[in-house]
């Protein structure tokens, strides 16, 4: 098992398949993009599957989430998913995506065994989408979402980051849209993980503000706290239920004490926290002939060193060197 010094057990593996993205959301990446990881540094499909297999077979990983960058840009994605679903014990396999291209890939991914998707959608307004992401792709995202629902990649979850004076007036309309379509919406507080280092705490739309905006139109009753487990979202029953909305207060309501996540970057580094400042290089070990036992041992040591919390609110907080797109969100 992957246990840290505070007794937390990591069972949820987030795997970044690429640091590239076809959007440029301002809370994540500058408009001109970033210097991408050189191809030889990226794990090959076989290397990804081998490390995931070690995690599942030897280290107690029960959930695998493919992410990025934009994972739909990874050519081998469908095959990687198919091979992941043959592992035993069979992990839950999901994808975090901006849904551009999902209209075409939802069916093949479902056939490959993908269980469900989280789709990022910050606005329903085409101009706002283009301004926020520097790409005019809202229709593609909506088509991808609908295709995921049709293909049975359920529950289809939607992730939204609200930014002040950009899309923060859309909290209630986004929730209404998701209720109509049968998607589960989660709002995420903006975190200091943008490559431009433009995050300001005072500017962030907080969980409290998000809830205030929603309760002007909906009645929200907190879900049973015990049922939350390690889930990052606090969930609320909407207008008596059964539909729910989630709020992930990563900054103002941190949930590090219940964290069960560990991350593998596209270049084969284990990160024990989104905000970790150290990484553990499994790619070098793997390419110099490490056995599965060696890899498992290195991975175990990396998780054992996990800090108690991300420390965003500490005076000495330092943003990690890698931005969100290169870590895997
Ligand atoms: N490209 C995929 C997508 O759009 O979902 C996967 C990667 S993206 C980095 C994963 C999630 O991280 C998205 O929901 C995105 O909104 C979120 N994200 C990116 N930067 C963030 C930040 N600074 N604070 C909070 N969430 C962020």
UniProtKB/TrEMBL annotation:
InterPro entries: Aldolase_TIM, Elp3/MiaA/NifB-like_rSAM, MoaA, MoaA-like, MoaA_NifB_PqqE_Fe-S-bd_CS, MoaA_twitch, MoCo_biosynth_MoaA/MoaC, rSAM
Residues reported in the UniProt entry to bind [4Fe-4S] cluster 2: 256, 259, 273
Catalytic activity: GTP + AH2 + S-adenosyl-L-methionine = (8S)-3',8-cyclo-7,8-dihydroguanosine 5'-triphosphate + 5'-deoxyadenosine + L-methionine + A + H(+)
EC number(s) stated in the UniProt entry for this protein: 4.1.99.22
Keywords, in A-Z order: 4Fe-4S, GTP-binding, Iron, Iron-sulfur, Lyase, Metal-binding, Molybdenum cofactor biosynthesis, Nucleotide-binding, S-adenosyl-L-methionine
Enzyme class per UniProt: lyase
Co-factor binding details: Binds 2 [4Fe-4S] clusters. Binds 1 [4Fe-4S] cluster coordinated with 3 cysteines and an exchangeable S-adenosyl-L-methionine and 1 [4Fe-4S] cluster coordinated with 3 cysteines and the GTP-derived substrate.
Record-annotated Radical SAM core domain positions: 5-223
Described purpose of this protein according to its UniProt entry: Catalyzes the cyclization of GTP to (8S)-3',8-cyclo-7,8-dihydroguanosine 5'-triphosphate.
Protein name per its UniProtKB record: GTP 3',8-cyclase
């Amino acid at each position: 098992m992957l246990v840290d010094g505070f007794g937390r057990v990591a069972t949820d593996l987030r795997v970044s398949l690429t640091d590239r993205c076809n959007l440029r959301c301002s809370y994540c990446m500058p408009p001109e993009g970033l210097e991408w990881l050189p191809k030889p540094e990226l794990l090959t499909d076989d290397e990804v599957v081998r490390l995931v297999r070690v995690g599942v077979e030897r280290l107690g990983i029960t959930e695998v989430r493919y992410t990025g960058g934009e994972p739909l840009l990874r050519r081998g994605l469908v095959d990687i998913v198919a091979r992941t679903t043959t592992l035993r014990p069979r992990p839950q396999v999901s994808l975090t995506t901006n849904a551009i291209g999902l209209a075409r890939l939802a069916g093949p991914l479902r056939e490959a065994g993908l269980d469900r998707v989280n789709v990022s959608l910050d606005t329903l307004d085409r101009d706002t989408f283009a301004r926020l992401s520097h790409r005019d792709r809202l229709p593609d995202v909506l088509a991808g979402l609908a295709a995921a629902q049709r293909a049975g990649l359920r529950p289809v979850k939607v992730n939204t980051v609200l930014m002040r004076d950009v899309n923060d007036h859309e909290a209630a309309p986004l929730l209404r849209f998701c209720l109509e379509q049968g998607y589960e919406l989660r709002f995420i507080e903006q975190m200091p993980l943008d490559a431009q280092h433009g995050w300001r705490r005072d500017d962030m739309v907080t969980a409290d503000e998000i809830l205030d905006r929603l309760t002007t139109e909906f009645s929200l009753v907190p879900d049973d706290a015990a049922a939350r487990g390690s889930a990052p979202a606090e969930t609320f029953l909407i207008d008596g239920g059964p539909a729910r909305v989630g709020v992930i207060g990563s900054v103002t309501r941190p949930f590090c004490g219940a964290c069960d996540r560990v991350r593998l970057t596209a270049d084969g580094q284990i990160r024990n926290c989104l905000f970790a400042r150290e990484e553990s290089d499994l790619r070098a070990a793997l390419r110099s002939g490490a056995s599965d036992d060696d890899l498992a041992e290195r991975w175990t040591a990396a998780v054992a060193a996990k800090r108690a919390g991300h420390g965003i609110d500490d005076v000495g907080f330092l943003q990690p060197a890698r931005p969100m797109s290169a870590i895997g969100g």
